[in-house]
Design goal:
Keywords: Disulfide bond, Secreted, Signal. The chain has 4 helices and 19 strands. With about 425 residues, the chain is of the alpha+beta class. About 20% of the residues have low confidence. Bound molecules: 2-acetamido-2-deoxy-beta-D-glucopyranose (NAG). 2-acetamido-2-deoxy-beta-D-glucopyranose binds next to loops.
Length: about 425
């Protein structure tokens, strides 16, 4: 009964969203699925609202308090479920260190150095929440401030404060804070007097005040319809140590040569009303023109678990890909139903297409990043469209960042100047 109601609500939301925007039906990617989310069907996702309002979604009376990465303190222990015959509490994995609850915020950042398996101390099924562990109760509380040095393209391959491994965690799930530039583009809407967040697309933070996404994600939405969420990891729960940051969108600029029917030049810039605070889980991606074509990553939340009202985790997914030469990509796409006269526009770049590689788990507007050779990552593409999903020999198609890098930078500088946000130095985007 409850499930049926849920499905009806979700369907209703999808119908509302799909009929709300005057989007044209597209011809090319008819059966695009998760990763290359069909641009004419906005996905409906009920994301939990931020910490304070999100209380009704958690079984716990209170979540641990924290202050934008400036150290954190534990909520009173009696707000956590008891375990280990009352000697321990069920807490999020990042608060547990060697079986003892961590109360020193700074110490959390040492967990990854020891390469602990945070799930190792999980005692069977005593703690029911995903990534909660049974931890011995602490002796003292002593929060400390944490400093963070921002840098574009920093991938935290081992997570920000702990590497998550073990049962229930899959290889295609990103570590917490692994891709700090990853953004979720959302739309707030009132449904049955309740404000819900509807997921539209992925995006990437290229400047503390600028998010890059696909033009086909924007459709007819206005800046005032949109919000951007940064530092998000599991869309269904708000248990992360470093909370996500939500920003209103003040201005939207779509590329002047965007062709909705063919998705040429599908670039859009979202300017945030207040700059993001750069923290270990929220930072920018680089915008370089030279990068490796191998060991690139696409990330996205996909759609498979959305709308489950917080019952299941929906952790950011990642897939490793290689970038194609455009001519070879055009040839490969001509073997599909696109036909032998298909012409791949210069504004595209292709990636993926290896059999067995799941390239579907993500969304339109999400970034494709490649290593620039010094350990940092630069954005190479924006998820645009595909033919099918993860089919051998058929790559996914992305907007080519290099192709419009000048427009991205010039437009950003112009709008930032108009917004009276300090314009970055010429070297910033490198
Ligand atoms: C992307 O665009 C740039 C500039 O137009 C071009 O030099 C580059 O070859 C393109 N990338 C690929 C993989 O085709």
């Amino acid at each position: 009964m409850k499930m049926k109601q849920l499905i009806l609500v979700v369907l209703a939301v999808v119908v509302v969203v799909v009929t709300a925007g005057p989007r044209e039906r597209r011809q090319i990617p008819q059966d695009c699925q998760w990763f290359e989310s069909c641009f004419d069907e906005t996905l409906a996702v009920d994301l939990p609202v931020n910490e304070a309002e999100g209380a009704e979604r958690t079984t716990r009376a209170a979540e641990p308090q924290q202050n934008q990465g400036q150290g954190q303190t534990l909520a009173p222990l009696d707000t956590y479920d008891k375990c280990n015959n009352g000697r321990g509490s069920c807490v999020p994995y990042y608060l547990c260190h060697d079986g003892d609850i961590v109360t020193d915020g700074a110490g959390l950042f040492d967990i990854r150095l020891g390469d602990l398996d945070p799930l190792a101390s999980r005692s069977s099924s005593e703690c029911s929440q995903f990534l909660d562990v049974c931890c011995n109760n602490p002796q003292t509380e002593n929060p400390q401030p944490i400093a963070y040095q921002a840098h574009c393209g920093r991938r935290n391959a081992n997570g920000v404060h702990a590497r998550i491994t073990g049962t229930g965690f899959q290889d295609n799930q990103a570590q917490f804070g692994e891709f700090p530039w990853m953004a979720a583009v959302l739309r707030k809407e009132k449904i049955h007097d309740k404000e819900v967040n509807l997921y539209i697309c992925g995006g990437s933070l290229i400047h503390p005040s600028v998010v890059l996404t696909a033009a086909h994600c924007i459709g007819s939405w206005q800046a005032s319809d949109l919000v951007v969420r940064l530092g998000e990891w599991d869309t269904q729960r708000t248990y992360e140590l470093l909370k996500h940051q939500e920003r209103k969108v003040r201005t939207v600029v779509v590329h002047p040569d965007y062709v909705p029917r063919a998705l040429h030049n599908t670039y859009a810039l979202l300017f945030l009303d207040t700059p993001a605070d750069l923290t270990p889980n929220v930072d920018t991606v680089c915008l370089n023109t030279a990068y490796n074509y191998g060991n690139c990553w696409a990330t996205g939340w996909g759609t498979d678990k959305y709308g489950q009202e917080g019952e299941y985790q929906n952790v950011l997914k990642k897939v490793e890909l290689g970038v194609w030469n455009n001519k070879e990509c055009e040839n490969a796409l001509r073997e599909t139903r696109l036909g032998k006269f298909f012409k791949l526009d210069d504004s595209f770049v292709c990636a993926g297409g290896l059999p067995g590689q799941d390239t579907c788990k993500g969304d339109g507007g999400s970034p494709l990043v490649c290593p620039r050779g010094d350990g940092f990552y630069t954005q190479a593409g924006i998820v645009a469209w595909g033919i099918g999903c993860g089919e051998a020999g058929v790559p996914g198609v992305y907007a080519n960042i290099t192709h419009s890098r000048d427009w991205i930078i010039q437009t950003s500088n112009q709008v930032l100047e108009a917004m009276q946000v300090p314009v970055p130095a010429a070297t910033y985007w490198n």
